[in-house]
Amino acid sequence: MSGESGFNFEDRADARILRDGNLLALVQQASKLGLGGMFHVECYDKDGNLKWKDVAKNGVTVVGIHHVLETVFRGGTPSTTWYMGLIVDPVSGGGPSENDTMSSHANWTEDTDYSETNRPTWAPDAAAAKAITNSTTTADFTINLDGDLYGIFIVDDNSKSGTSGVLFSTAPFSGGKQSVKSSDVLKVTYTLNGTNV
Questions:
Q1: φ, ψ for residue 51, nearest 5 deg
Q2: 5 and 55 part of one domain
Q3: Do the Cβ atoms of 175 and 19 come closer than 8 Å?
Q4: Number of domains the chain is built from
Q5: Residues 67, 22 share a domain
Q6: Beta bridge partners of 155
Q7: Which residues contact 92 (CB under 8 A, 6 or more apart)?
Q8: pTM for this entry
Q9: Strands (E), 45-184
Q10: Torsion sign over Cα 89, 94, 100, 105
Q11: Separation of alpha carbons 105 and 166, rounded Å
């Protein structure tokens, strides 16, 4: 039979493995949920003049991803409020990593040279079009010391220099280091997008 048809059992088995392998790959591709965000940062001088602006694409940390999965699918404790912080002094050749946590981020330090008592709140509007953003109310930093900034982060603890809480995402500025002077004001919008990838 196999000689007449040119298709034997081994051929059928190989075809099934190939089909099932392709199906598995397709299922794996279709079942991924992507989370990614973008910081839009504008720096104004004391007279309200725009000095510079930057767009920083974030990387979501491992602990941030785990927090989302545990909260949504295992009844974990949600974080009801999130805050922004500033990044300075990256180690040469280093910078934010997906493995960073608030208690361990060896390649950068937090900048606290702004007048607000606590880290500014990220107050997003309701989710829409697979995104959530604070476009209505920016998170503002009033700088009180001249210096350079390298990036920004999101965490669920508002304590300046605090080492607790869930570090959700970090982002280096796309334009590299950005200079600020005392009395400058940073206005920051963060948009988090969800995608099927």
A1: -95, -45
A2: no
A3: no
A4: 2
A5: no
A6: 83, 167
A7: none
A8: 0.81
A9: 50-57, 59-60, 82-88, 109-111, 121-122, 131-133, 139-142, 147-149, 151-155, 167-172, 178-180
A10: negative
A11: 13
State the Cα–Cα distance between residues 151 and 190, nearest whole angstrom.
Answer: 13
* Domain carrying residue 42: 35-196
The candidate with the shortest Cα–Cα distance to 42, out of 51, 34, 29, 30, is 51
| CB proximity list for 111: less than 8 A, separation 6 or greater | 85, 86, 87, 88, 147, 149
Is pLDDT of 68 > 60?
Answer: yes
> Do 179 and 102 reside in the same domain of the chain?
yes
Of 156, 153, 155, 168, whose CA–CA distance to 88 is shortest? 153
Are both 8 and 85 inside the same structural domain? no
- Do residues 66 and 142 both lie within one domain? yes
Answer yes or no: do 41 and 20 share one domain.
no
98, two tokens: 């997906």
Residue 74: CB partners within 8 Å, gap ≥ 6? none
What's the pLDDT tens digit per position in 5-62?
A: 343 434 444 444 444 555 555 445 555 667 788 999 999 999 999 999 999 998 899 9
3 lies in the same domain as 97: no
